[in-house]
Amino acid sequence: MGLMDSLRSGLSGALNEAERAAVPGLISEALGHTQFGSLQGLVDHLQSGPLAQQVQSWVGPGSNLPVSADQIKQVLGNEQVRQLAAHFHLDPDKVADLLASHLPKAVEGAAQNGTVTTPQQGSA
Fold first, then answer.
1. Which CATH architecture has domain 3-114?
2. Helix or strand or coil: residue 71?
3. 85-106 b/e with 16+ CB inside 10 Å = b?
4. N-terminal to C-terminal alpha carbon distance within the chain
5. 69-76 vs 92-110: helix axis angle to the nearest 10?
6. What Cα–Cα distance (Å) separates residue 93 from each residue in 15, 77, 104?
7. Which stretch of DSSP H or E encloses residue 111?
8. How do residues 27-82 score in pLDDT, each as one tens digit?
């Protein structure tokens, strides 16, 4: 099973602990094919826009504020959502739904002292 197949099955079903830990790196890898370049690039973009409060809750202490698929599409723009959809071989609406569902936890899991870090591909 390839990396993208693993991501699709992991995100569409219940994520186990190992898959949850891999989500930030997988999202960051996919974002490398967009204008954002990485999970940190996306976080920087989101923090400078209308989702700043939500993002701060994801990187800071406390509970995560939710984000909707419509908010994701509005902030990222149709072209970026289409690029991610093409990368994952999914419908753009499904990608927006998945990001809305998993991005808060992915950012939270990758955040250390308010900065997002993602493991390098291939590292243990």
1. Orthogonal Bundle (1.10)
2. helix
3. bebbebebeebbbbbbbbbbeb
4. 19
5. 90
6. 20, 12, 18
7. strand 111-112
8. 777 777 778 888 888 888 888 889 999 999 998 888 999 999 999 999 989 888 89
**33, 82 contact by CB (below 8 A):** no
Q: What is the pTM of this model?
A: 0.69
Alpha helices in the chain (DSSP H): 3-12, 17-31, 39-47, 52-59, 69-76, 78-88, 92-110
CA gap 33, 101 in Å, rounded = 21
Mapping DSSP to helix (H, G, I), strand (E, B) and coil, where does residue 33 land?
coil
Radius of gyration of the chain measured on its C-alpha atoms: 13
Residue written as token pair 């890898």 = 29
Residue type, 99: L
Question: Where does residue 113 rank: exposed (0-12), middle (13-18), buried (19+ CB within 10 A)?
Answer: exposed
How far CA 42 is from CA of 5, 13, 18, 90, in Å, comes to 23, 24, 23, 20
The answer to whether 100 and 68 have CB atoms below 8 angstroms apart is yes
Domain positions in the chain are 3-114
